[in-house]
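Human: If only I could read backbone structure tokens as easily as an amino acid sequence. Underneath my words sits a plain record pairing an amino acid chain with its backbone structure tokens. Take your time, and here it is.
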Amino acid sequence: MKVIIIGCTHAGLVAAKEILAIHPETAVTIYERTNGFSFTSAGIFLYLNHSINHLADTFASSPEKLRALGVKVCDNHNVLQVDPKQQTILAADMAKETIIADHYDRLIIATGANVRLPAIKGIDNPHVLLCKNYQQIKQVIQLAQNRQRIAIVGGGYVGIGLAESFINNGHQVQLFQSHQQILNNYFNQSTALRITHLLEEHGVKIQLKTQVAKFFEEKDQTLKIETDKGTFLADMVVVCTGFVPNTRLLKDQLKTDSRGALLLNNYLQTSDSKIYAAGDCAAVHFNPTNELTYIPLASNAIRQGKIVAHNIFKNSYPYVGTQATSALELFDHYWATTGLTIENAKRHQLNVFEATLTTKLLPTYLHSEAELTISLVYNRDNRRILGAQLDSNTNLIQAINTISLAIQNHNTIDDLAFVDMFFQPVFNQSFNYLNQVAQKAIRQEREAGFDQSRFTFDF
């Protein structure tokens, strides 16, 4: 079988490796516009926080490594056209300045995403930068070396991570967010407020509910940032206002959603049965709402890449969907989230409630300073768990994966309340905090007159 993969993103790289692991006789060709394969965009935080010495260390692979595995690698090749009827592609060899044609039996689209460009006048100013791929991030790092005042537009994971990294390196940082809270796609308002206060305590100035309208440069290279709340000054700006699927190549050929994300079936096939897709170019099934949506996360891309590698031979591994589980470390504090926040659940018109528990991690007699806050979102109609938020002054974030599994498996607050979890005083209390927050949810329902629990004793 001849398989072509367009894009050596996380999804494309995993797919290529897995195909050759399970069917080494397969002819696999990768077309990639650059020669940097599967770059981890979080590398900028690792580099600025001095966790790595070289930004390039976060590339997951290289053309040479893939060729050693048996992949035909066409790096620095830009795919110009896909013809699904003829099962061919046209690509430009940017080094030789030639056009080549190639044929496939199966095609995997792994083109990833691009930065979403907001409608801001002056966004093309050379001191206004984007932050997604290796080349863009190198520019951000280089320009920041000689710039003191840095403005960040966008309060998602990238914007928050940049704010911490730049403030730790002695910069003055101002962050603009159009929404009423930061991290609105991931955390509830109360958790986002705690993260906001932590950033502000370390010197980050945050402007919420602020629309940036224009950038313009003074003679001394100072940038003026015009917003609906007034004018602010900076020496450089980094725009990180989210992502859009990179699917222009296949426009009008394959079915997409309103954002342009490729629509896939349970086996990650597009509307053309010989073309599969994985990663940030595609919509995903979001289990808490049972809907297709766009969630560009590396964790989704990696899993989809592995599944696609099997399904191109036989559709035998259905995609189980996602809970959009993610985590954040910020100033030695830890945050994690999965599923729906209470606000997003209400926007979906679900009958939801939230139980919040703040507790010490260990029994009081051990006098530990480790503590945590966990919020559990559940549907009052069927008691199913729909989401959770966790933050702690110690690294407990792996626990969010347990809640992710509970959501995926349609578990209820009653299931979680007494699920078997070990007890050892040096690690936890007699009831794990996940048990405790579910037990609190059951108490809330009982006190509200919605006593549907199969447990009859008090907590």
User: Anything to note?
Assistant: The longest strand covers residues 352-360. The CA atoms of residues 116 and 243 lie 5 Å apart. The radius of gyration is 24 Å. The first helix runs from residue 10 to 22.
